[in-house]
GMP synthase [glutamine-hydrolyzing] (Boletus edulis BED1), 528 residues
Amino acid sequence: TILILDFGSQYSHLITRRCRELKVYAELMPCTTLLKDIHFKPQGIILSGSPYSVYDSDAPHADPAIFELGVPILGICYGLQEIAWNFKGQVAKCEHREYGHATVQRTRFGQGSVDALFEDLGDEMQVWMSHGDQLQDLPKDFHVIGQTESAPFAAVAHNTKPIYGIQFHPEVTHSPKGKAVISRFVLGICRCRANWTMEEFIGKEISRIIDICGPKGRVIGAVSGGVDSSVAAKLMHEAIGDRFHAIMVDNGVLRLDEAKQVHEMLNKDLGVNLTVVDASELFLSRLEGVEDPEQKRKIIGNTFINVFEAEAAKIEAAAEEEEKQGGEAKGLVEWLLQGTLYPDVIESISFKGPSATIKTHHNVGGLLKDMKLKLIEPLRELFKDEVRALGRLLSIPAPLVQRHPFPGPGLAIRILGPVTREQVKVLQQADNIYIEEIRRANLYNHISQAFAVLLPVKAVGVMGDKRTYEQVIALRAVQTEDFMTADWYVFPAEVLKRISSRITNEVKGVNRVTYDISSKPPATVEWL
Ligand code: XMP
């Protein structure tokens, strides 16, 4: 295992990803974590970048004990300065913040194992820099292994210990050999074995779940038809069979025929024990007249809890009754399944606290914390692409594994005005045509997320000889790696043409279709 200490850089989670891509398990922890509180012995430690300067009075520092542990250490950007700070080197502000491409020249070759970081990587490397401070002087017992035009100490190594510092960011894709540098550190210097695979994970996780739940405990969990909850449900089913109960709540703002499709998929294809609750009346009545997006999210989140808790109580009552009747004693519901992924965990362990809220993403997790059930989170170590790989291994059908994400508050945040049954129907139809045509053009898997939005304006049109005055649909499609930033997708014109013509012809009440060409930032993926 590689321990990554997070000093708050926006790239910290990418370091974790790169290690995992090398099939080495890596865990990100706040930089303030004390060595004695870490539950595993790391084979190597990576110190991330940071928005701070090491000499700021409130600058975060690592537990100095890590330098005594004897395992290899790699400091990236601020991590390099943190090493220098520890070894009493000089760090100072650059005259100009350096941001962008640079070329690192290797300065020292073949000095034995201490210079192993850049082995076999050539004499020059294109790298990505993003820093305001840099090393002014070498700390005692260190030597230079790489420099750029403006940074004479762009890469340094300890003379006798496996401690390295680099000014550039190897974790970003703008550093083409960055992954090789991380590989040199993790596989070469730390000698980690490349054995973190989803095949291994399934076996270990199933035994862990069986251990946690014991021979009788039951688990309930919400499923949405999305990949995370489906994979989590399937894993639970593999581990404890019918002692796992999935509940799907139809909140009235799902996609066209979604509840029916998910029901079929989970029951038939995954064999999971599933209850579908149609609570659409309740949700839509509570949403009546509400326009504010955050208000919509709140109502949907709270109503979800009410409905879910009522269903959970029913399942628990039935379990109790079964036990009383002397039926097979399967035990009571003790656990709540959560499809929490690693990015949510990273977000919540940040040493600065969760980043500023732009939208309160309705995460069922946070909201259900008050329930008396204990949480079980089998995906909490995984990134989205790992969950997809896991899904494939668990024989979950490919269309489900590749599904675009769908927000918890559903179409309610894609209807820009008040949510009514009629508006939901209009949007469902338009969205369905849009996705159908994307699939027909074989573009679905090239796009990260695509959906239609119903605008709260009317526009003039003409149909036959008549003037129309109807609603407008906006189409959105983005490509992104992590949904933190996103580019709008460039469709072939003929696909857009077909989509527009079908929507305006087939969806009653819509006479105009527009395509959203905003990237994130400054826009967000959803309109609300
Ligand atoms: P934004 O709009 O923040 O979206 O750029 C990024 C990703 O998050 C999804 N999203 C949500 N998911 N509840 C969710 O479960 C929400 O309230 C919510 N708002 C946005 C969005 O669909 C995209 O995938």
Q: What stands out?
A: The pocket of xanthosine-5'-monophosphate is lined by residues 297, 359, 361-362, 405, 407-409, 449, 483, 520, 524-526 (CB under 6 Å). DSSP finds 14 helices and 18 strands in the chain.
